[in-house]
Structure formats: structure tokens, C-alpha cells
Amino acid sequence: MADKPGDVGLFRNRAARTPNIAELTDLANEFGLHCEDGELEYYKEHIDETLAASYQIVNDLVAPTLPVKYPRAPGFRPEPEDNVCNAWYWRCDIEGAKDGILKGKTLAIKDNVCVAGVPMMNGSKIMEGYVPDIDATVVTRILDAGGRILGKTNCEHLCFSGSSYTNDTGATLNPFDKARSAGGSSAGSAVAVANGEVDMAIGGDQGGSIRIPASWCGIVGLKPTWGLVPYTGAVPIETTCDHLGPMTRTVRDCAVLLEAIAGFDDGQDPRQPRGLKVPKYTSLLDVKLDGWKIGLLTEGFTDCDADVQSVVRAAAEQLNKAGATVEETSIPLHKHGIAIWSPICTEGAYQCMVRGAGLGYHNKGYYSESMMKKLSQGYKSEPKQLSEIMKLVILFGKYMEKAYGNQFYGRAHNLNMKLTKAYDEALKKYDVIIMPTLPYKAPLLPTKDSTIKERFKNALGMIKNTAPFDSTGHPALTINAGKSEGLPIGMMIIGNQFEDAKVIQVAYAFEQLQGK
Fold first, then answer.
1. pTM of the predicted structure, to 2 decimals
2. Which of 30, 32, 185, 200 could form a disulfide with 156 if both were Cys (CB 3.0 to 4.6 A apart)?
């Protein structure tokens, strides 16, 4: 081992242990490798030299980390009687800068996003006890903009559910009917905003996890263009589908928060193109829609409940009053969007979350080492604590890897390019496309008598319209279109990639027509 400055030859533990011959023999047999006499001994020697040199140096060098710029106390876990609808995992109070566009705004952070010094569970016992040592980039940007963070909101177990019952602290309840789902996985963020406990919140979205709870809780939720908002410092599910975005009561607040958190993150997030430009969304809100064309996607209405279809159509037609032309359009491939997304997110999640210890491989950028260590330990030591859905992801992902390699994952990504182009072609004709966010209103939460089949439908049965835009990366915003039987129904507005401003402008125009 090479001496370091100040090293006087004293004994010190190695960063990584060299495998013995028996371990290398087992690994060779596992992969069906044929090794001649003496080969394994040489491999052992080579591995030992590499571990003693390169890996020891990597271990000893001080790696860069994300800044923690604002003082805070660790906060507290709220008592049930102080936790309306079980929206909160942890309460804290972190004051940001003395001025900025978020000054006077209170915010909640989804509990898959790191806030230094504040416990983080990500909905799962396998992460319980973890305290991040970094602030995610969106957290730093919120505080730099003068925002005040009041806590971490409950999310689904490792964020893999579109309902709100898999969190290991218990279900998050819909504020309109506490027997019903609040939607997931950003359930707590939606509920805290809907209940007026904060002005705005951060959510995450891989299959609809911002838009689902926003729709069922009657608020605004934006899944931005993939890469517009840095994901640095949040727990990934699948790098090609990961998004963070705003959840707010008004479109103006959505624009304000997006303006604060969007933009290039100095190369720390591989999702982001260099030269990324971020407009001042708040200055672009109030535009006339004269001459705009809006397409109602026929396939997006298919298989939606009748009341959902009628409420969303009526809401979209109101945009005629703002000067837009609203008409039917068709993108036949949309009906296969969920099928294309499925191998990407299921197999990708297994590789990234489980095999890759939460952050995976093959990406340049910042890796949260403490998060990776906690997740790796959790998957190994606490597998019995995983939710039913995560057990399925692991079994399904491992089987597909063993039986077929990554051929379906690769085929799905190739088809995703075709799906992306299909939306892009439609968006050459239309400024935005509109459809129902979800096919039905918030369902009743599972009970102790529910079957596993019923629980899975409750968790994953609503994503046919939301998931495709996670894999293609188009911006998609949900806004409350109205109610049926007292329950909110969301209208989803989709635009060209990096034309998030147009999506927000249409939503703002609709909001103004409602007199808000």
C-alpha cells in the first residue's frame, strides 16, 4: 500500500477485504467460469493489489459533498392527534434566506428527498433511523429562495405505489373522505397542501406519483420535463423516469416553486443537459390563448369512468372562452404507453433500487454514499420488512434478468423513442394535449379483509395516463377540473419537452376562468 503524507508505517485496517480462494471458486461456479490450475491464485493476487492501491486511495481521498447552508434542529415525530390524515413523517422548522421569491412561503419535502440532520424513512422500515448528511439540491434552492421548510411528508413504501396505504407508519388519508386513498406516492405532500398546513410541497414522480395524489386531493401537481429539475439528493427508482416537482394549491405558486428549483446542477445530475435555460415562469403566466390549439386525446379518455370523462371534457371546453380551439385528436400508441413504461420501470427499479443499492451504476454525477450504504444494508438485513409490491418488483426483476437478460428493458426503451416521437408529432399541431389525469375518482383504501389482488389494483391500477409521460419525459400538469360525488377529478395538460411554461400557461388560463 502506498504511503500517505504523515504515514510512518503503522498498522491500519484495509478499506476492503481480499476474497479467499473458496469465495472466488464459488463465484466462478456461479457464473459457469472454467478456470485452469493457478488461475484463481493469480486473480486473488491481482484483486489484492487493486484493492490495496486504487480502492484504498478512493477510500482515503475526501469526496465532495452537497452543501448544508442553513442551521436547523432535527425536529420531532408528530403525535397522531397532531398529524392530520397522517400527512407528516417528521416535523422541523428550517428558515431560509432573508429574501427571495419564496420568502413568506412554507414548504413540505417528500420523505424520499434528503434534508440534512432530519430523519428520513422513505416510507419503509428498511430506511428507518437514517439521517441524511446532505441537503438535496432542491432543498438548498428552496432555502436560498427564502422558503421555510416545516417538515418531511409521508410517502409510499420506497415510493412504489400509486395509492396511500403502503407506508410503514400507516395509511395517509384523503382530506375529502378519510376512508379513501389520497393517492401516491407523494401522498403526504398532497394532503399537507390540500389541508393548508403548508403553501407548497415537493413531490416525486416515476409513474404518476406527483399527479396521482394531486388529482385525488384537488390541488396542482407538475411533473416537469425530465431533467429540468435536478434529482440530486433524492432516492431514485429508475434514473430514466425519476422526476421531482411542485405540488401547490394554485398555478401561480406552482410557477414560483418551479422557478426556484429548476435549472442546471453543475453536472451533478446526469438527467440534465448542459446549457439548460430556465425562464421566469411567473412572468409568463398571463398570456392570451388566442390562436392556440388544444387536443383532447381520445385514447386518454378511453376506459375512464363516465363522470371523469364528462368533468374533464367540460373543463377543457371552457378553454374556448380563453381563445383556444379545443378539438379531438388521436395518438393510437398512447394506449400501449403503460406497456412500454412497465419493463423500463419494473426491471429498471430492480436494477437501480435493489441491485444498485438505491443509486445504481452507469451515471456521472453525485452519489449519496450514506444513502447507498443504508439502502444496501436494509435490503440485506431487513428483506422481510419489504412491502408486497416491492417483493413483486424483486421477484419479477430478478426472474427477467435471469431468464432474458435485459432484452425486454432494451426493447421497451427503443419503443419509448417511438412513443416519444408520436407525442412530439401531435405537439407540432397542438400547443398542449389534454386528458383525464386518472381513470377514476379516489377509491376506498384497502381494509384488513382485502385480498392481495385487490390491494395491488388499489396500488397500481390508476397509472395508464400518467406513467407514459414519465418514460417519455414530457411535462405533465394536473389541475382540479371539478368534482363528482364530492371527490376531485384531475385534468392533465401535456406539452413539449422543456415547454413547461406552456403547460403552466394553459393551467393558469383555466384557473382564471374559475375565478381563482
1. 0.95
2. 185
